[in-house]
Amino acid sequence: MKTKMKINGLNEKRPERQKKKGVALLTVLTVMSLATILVLTFFTMAQSELESATSYSHGMEARHLSETAVNMVIGQIRKATLGQDANDPSTKFAWASQPGAIRQYAVDGTMNMGFKLYSDDKMVEAIESNLVGSDVAELKTWSSNPAVFVDLNEPVIRGKKVFYPIVDPRAKTVQQVDGFDYDSAQVGTSPLASAVKKADSQADSLPMPVKWLYQLEDGSMGYMTGGGSKGTYKPVGGGGISNPAESDRRPGGLLGG
Predict the structure, then answer these.
(1) Which phi and psi (to 5°) does residue 223 adopt?
(2) Which parts of 34-100 are beta strand (E)?
């Protein structure tokens, strides 16, 4: 009888022990689930902070990039209007401005340097005839080289209306403004010429092509050579480009015209 009673006692306690084990397992699973949620929340917040910091960094780079073109022009103007040789202050120069350039003259009246105020693969010319002549020959085929050239006066078509960012050629053909004239034969036809005529029969294209200047993420600048939609990249200083504002360069991505 004693042996039987002991066995029955063990049989009665077994369900209670199993119940306690079940409660402990549920508690462990709950704690592990909460810990997993906390870890995932932490990593999600860290990822969000990283994306926010990256976005802010890119925004600052874009802001600096937007100032690059202005800094280049400022560098050109400062160097052209200094009035003396930077290496020899006793050598004096006079200067005269014109649309798109500043000419620097020696005391005997000969041109010393010509400084362009538009983007080009060569921003400074020592020979007066090259200040314009070297660019005019290239402009006749500018529209077939989109990787090299960009039209600053590219028209924007909205329905039957045509808008121009810089110069409206209708000032000559429609409004007939006194003193306003241009010779479109010196510049190749715009790719949008037919679309402009279709939108407004009185409108016309007046391209103002200049060369792209490219700025890489490391802050270095360059330009494209060749034809078509693709070209060969040449860095500043590596292909003959004169960049007077190189010290004013800022890190960024791409600089156009």
Answers:
(1) -145, 170
(2) 94-98
* Residue (of 174, 225, 179) closest to 201 by Cα position: 174
* Cα–Cα separations (whole angstroms), residue 142 to 27, 44, 191, 207: 75, 50, 10, 10
In whole angstroms, give the CA distance from residue 151 to residue 185: 16
Residue in this structure with the two tokens 């006066």, named with its chain if needed: 153
Tell me which amino acid residue 84 is: Q
Tell me the per-residue pLDDT of 16-58, one tens digit each, with 9 for 90 and over. 555 556 677 778 888 888 899 999 998 889 888 989 998 888 8
User: What are 222's two structure tokens?
Assistant: 């360059």
Residue 240, pLDDT score: 38
89 vs 157: which has the higher pLDDT: 157
Cα gap 152→213, rounded to integer Å: 13
- Other beta carbons within 10 Å of 82: 14
Amino acid sitting at position 43? F
Query: Measured between alpha carbons, how far is residue 75 from residues 11, 70, 81, 177 in Å?
Result: 96, 9, 10, 34
